[in-house]
Design brief:
The protein has six helices and three strands. With about 200 residues, it is mainly alpha-helical. The chain has a single domain, classed as Four Helix Bundle (Hemerythrin (Met), subunit A) (Up-down Bundle), CATH 1.20.120. Strands 2-1-3 form a three-stranded antiparallel sheet, with no helix packed on it. A hairpin with a 4-residue loop joins strand 1 and strand 2. It starts with a helix and ends with a helix. It is found in: Membrane. One of its GO terms (cellular component) is membrane. This is Transmembrane 4 L6 family member 1. Belongs to the L6 tetraspanin family.
Amino acid sequence: MCFGRCARCVGYKLLILALLSIVANILLYFPNGETRFASEHHLGKYVECLHGILGGGFLVLIPAAVFIGLHNHDCCGCFGHEGCGKSCAMLSSVLAAFVGILGSGYCVIISALGLSHGPYCFTHLERNWIYPFTESSGGYLFEYNKWSQCQEPQNIVQWNITLFSVLLVLGGIEFILCFIQIINGILGGLCGLCCSHEEV
């Protein structure tokens, strides 16, 4: 098994997932494609946590770049022994994977809290901007008849549920991939990066 090839495969997958997380988080800022709610500060507190941009995005792009470039990284050769240097590089990739674990974990936690807390919206009952579903502890997700309480932004409940769910799934997959790379990096560091005949 080529540990370096596995790391590059994980890296490319993380790159795609991180970009998708950034896009999903940006969409959260513009319900229905409208910018006025962001400019008027009528966004939920979990929308503004940058969990998809910073957590599932940039903090996952770091290990993605490390894993993709791992094949050309020989860690100075470790006393002139190239195989040892590549094993050293594989072990160093474990640190990058931990950065990805932190970022994706942050994305998962904030997304789960955002889903549980519900959207920030203008309701016809209170005639004010509130969190109408806070007390339901996520129960509102299955009470479709209550979603109409939110008048503005239109369809904000569906918008939030969809994007927070997407970010939750993306963050979860990123977390699993980074965990896989931790195991791969340790094994690759101990066993060597690749079979010698593949490097010739």
